[in-house]
Amino acid sequence: MNSYQVRINKVLSHIDFHLDEKQDLNSLAEMAFLSKFHFHRIMSSYLGEPLAVYINRIKLEKAAILLKYSDNPIEKIAYTIGYESPTSFTKSFKKAFKVSPTDFKRNNAGNFTIKPKLKAVKQFDLSSEIRQIKPFKALTYQVKGKVGDEKTYEGWAGLVSFSSENCLIDALTKYIAVHWDDPTITKEHNLRYDACISINKELNQTGKFTLKQFPGGKYLCVSYQGDYMFLPDVYNQIFKTYIFKHNFRLREEPVFEELLNSINDTPKKKLVTVIHIPIE
Predict the structure, then answer these.
(1) How many other CB atoms sit within 10 Å of the CB of residue 185?
(2) Integer Cα distance of 257 and 209 in angstroms
(3) Of the residues 9, 94, 107, 257, which has the maximum number of CB atoms within 10 A of its CB?
(4) What pLDDT was estimated at residue 35?
(5) C-beta of residue 105 within 8 angstroms of C-beta of residue 99
(6) Three-state DSSP class for 185?
C-alpha cells in the first residue's frame, strides 16, 4: 500500500467514526498530510466521486442500516448521522432511496438501495514530462462564477486588449488559467478563476488587473488535447495514472493550466492544455 492510500484511508476512517460531525476539509487535509490545494482532486480521483458526495452517501447508508436493524426513532437517527433536523434528513433520504425513512422502516428496507449515477470512464491520450519552471510574473484578472460563461470571455478579452495596448505580448507570452475552488463544494456563483497572461516587462500601472508572481519550481506537466469540458475527468486520470502510481509529493502551490491555443479560433477537439502540477 503506497503512502497516498495510507493517508486517504486515515481520512476515510475518521469520517466513518465522526458521521455526526461537520467535516472541515482543511482539517481533513492536514490530518492526512495532504496539500490543501490538491486535496479535493486527490480524494475525488481516489474515491471515484467528490468527497462531499461520498460523505453524504455513507451517512445515508448508515441511516438505512439503523432504520432496518434498530428501534431508534427517525429523529435520533437523523442526529446520529449529523443532520441538523429530521426534516432535512427525510428530504435527503427520500432523494437517495426514492422512499421516505418511515416507509423504508415500515417495509423493513425491502430491496431499496442507493443507486449512484455511474458514468463510463473515458480514457484520454495524455503525454507528460517533468519540467523545472523558472519563476514568472503574470497580469491577472479574477472571474467569479461559472467558468466558460460570458464573464469569463469578457475577462480574457479585456486582459488581452490591455496587454496588447501596452505591448506586453510577445513570442514568449503564456496564457494561464488557475482554478481556485472545487465546484462540488463551492457554489457556482462563488467559483474563482484567474485568467493570466505572463509578462516579461516592467509595468508601472495595471489598471483593473493585478500582478501575480508564479514561484516556479518542479512541475509534472501533462498535455491534453480536447474540449475543456472534459478537464475534470482528465484531472482524475492524471492523479490515478501519475500521482498515485508514482507517489509524487505535491508542493503547497496551486495547479495551473497553460492554454496553447484559443477557443476563439480553434475547434474544441483541437484545444491544447498543458496542466502544471507542482511536485517536490
Answers:
(1) 13
(2) 19
(3) 257
(4) 83
(5) no
(6) coil
pTM: 0.74
What are the angstrom distances between the C-alpha of 244 and each of 74, 189, 201, 237, 249?
Answer: 41, 32, 39, 10, 9
Strand 210-214, strand 136-144: pairing:
antiparallel
Q: Which residue has the cell 438505512?
A: 64
Written as one letter, the residue type at 194 is D
Best CA proximity match to 248, nearest among 132, 135, 130, 124: 130
For residues 51 and 44, the answer to whether their CB atoms sit within 8 Å is yes
Q: What is the residue type of 91?
A: K
Rounded to whole angstroms, the Cα distance separating 19 from 274 reads 39
Domains 3-106 and 127-278 share a fold: no
Residue owning grid cell 426534516: 87
Alpha-carbon distance of 118 to 263, in angstroms, equals 30
Nine cell digits for residue 14: 475518521
Give CA–CA dist 271/224, Å, rounded. 8
Write out pLDDT tens, residues 59-94.
988 888 888 767 789 999 999 899 999 999 999 999
DSSP lists the bridge partners of residue 141 as: 195
Q: Is the pLDDT of residue 148 over 90?
A: no
Cβ atoms of 277 and 249 closer than 8 Å: no
Domain boundaries, the chain: 3-106, 127-278
CATH 3.20.80.10 fits 127-278, yes or no: yes
For 246, how many CA atoms within 13 A lie in the half-sphere containing its CB? 14
End-to-end CA distance of the chain: 21
In this structure, CATH architecture of domain 3-106: Orthogonal Bundle (1.10)
For residue 40, give the C-alpha cell: 479535493
Local structure of residue 250 (DSSP, 8 states): B
Predicted pLDDT of residue 75 = 92
